[in-house]
Amino acid sequence: MRVSNSRAPETLADLAGETGAIAVWAREVATDADLVMVSIPQKNVVDLVPGIVAGAKRGAPVIETNNYYPRERDGLIEAIEADAGECLGLRAAWGPCL
């Protein structure tokens, strides 16, 4: 299992040590993955590295577990407010999300 964040891999040293995961740069996290899970603030989906999941294995599911908090953190995202669905950001870039 690989993990990444918006900073450097060394900032995940404690998590990697506790879980056995390998901390990597965001652009490397999905390379050859059987499954990709993205858990970030909804407002940050647009800032993901372009093609971040492109290196996953063909057919690998991309699961987006982002939560939309328009009042507390994300501000209003018009596409979501118009009922386009919360996985809009990843769907637009990488196909269906679960």
Your description of this structure?
The chain has 98 residues and is α/β, with parallel strands linked by helices. It contains four helices and four strands. Strands 1-2 form a two-stranded parallel ribbon. Strand 1, helix 1 and strand 2 form a beta-alpha-beta unit. The longest helix has 7 residues. The mean pLDDT is 84.
Structural class from helices and strands?
alpha/beta
Secondary-structure element string: EHEEEHHH
Side-by-side strand order of the widest sheet: 1-2
Strand content: 5-15%
Give the % helix: 10-25%
N-C termini distance: 20 Å
Using only C-alpha atoms, the radius of gyration works out to 14 Å
Main beta sheet: strand number and arrangement? 2 strands, parallel
Q: Determine the oligomeric state from the structure.
A: single chain
Uncertain runs with pLDDT below 50, 5 residues or more? none
Shape: globular
Count of β-strands: 4
| Mean pLDDT across all amino acids | 84
Number of helices: 4
Summarize the SSE layout with pairings.
Blueprint: E1 2-3, H1 13-19, E2 22-23, E3 36-38, E4 62-64, H2 70-74, H3 78-81, H4 88-94
Offer a few descriptive terms:
98 residues, alpha/beta, two-stranded parallel ribbon, two-stranded parallel sheet, 4 helices, globular
What's a concise summary of this model?
By secondary structure, the chain is α/β, with parallel strands linked by helices.
